[in-house]
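Objective 1.3, modelling of assemblies. Example input:
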Amino acid sequence: RKEVEQDPGPFNVPEGATVAFNCTYSNSASQSFFWYRQDCRKEPKLLMSVYSSGNEDGRFTAQLNRASQYISLLIRDSKLSDSATYLCVVIRGGYSTLTFGKGTMLLVSP
Amino acid sequence: DAGVIQSPRHEVTEMGQEVTLRCKPISGHNSLFWYRQTMMRGLELLIYFNNNVPIDDSGMPEDRFSAKMPNASFSTLKIQPSEPRDSAVYFCASRAGTGGYEQYFGPGTRLTVT
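Predicted structure (tokens):
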């Protein structure tokens, strides 16, 4: 089983829609979680951290389910500019290196 | 402030040639990472430096790959000899401290080996 798994998509949604992605991780010792965003032919950039209690940043909500070992990202009121690949990132306890999922592609259409 | 700087941005070379990728981290950052990204394998960590010292090189594919960080403001990733399967986008990233987790990526070097 891969350490971090994501549905590659693409998720095709119209503007204004709500869309959610999940990411599963295999190592129960994983302690820190993040979502990065990568635009086409660009570098990844941090979107948001994922906290145990869940956290929200504008239209974006991230949640962690340790029992089932997955994290989620919810995007409300999708914009055309949200079109990108969303990378799930996990840090294992005791290490400071990041393990990236392959990403989920989101395409928002007019 | 300048972000992470990588050069060249694009490199096309023939199989068997030596390739050197360069990275200048953000000033003041003491951790530096080299990644490789392909469609098949996604983003893979190759090597991680902390205070110019290699900490984890378990991701380096084989002996053809080597990385150095002679000082806090410069790192190289060398492939010798290059092979077509090395074609990928190579990213360098830097981070401040060891407690913070946000990594800042450079624009990447798109390498094509023919």
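Chain A touches chain B at residues 32, 34, 42-46, 49, 87, 91, 96-103 (CB under 8 Å).
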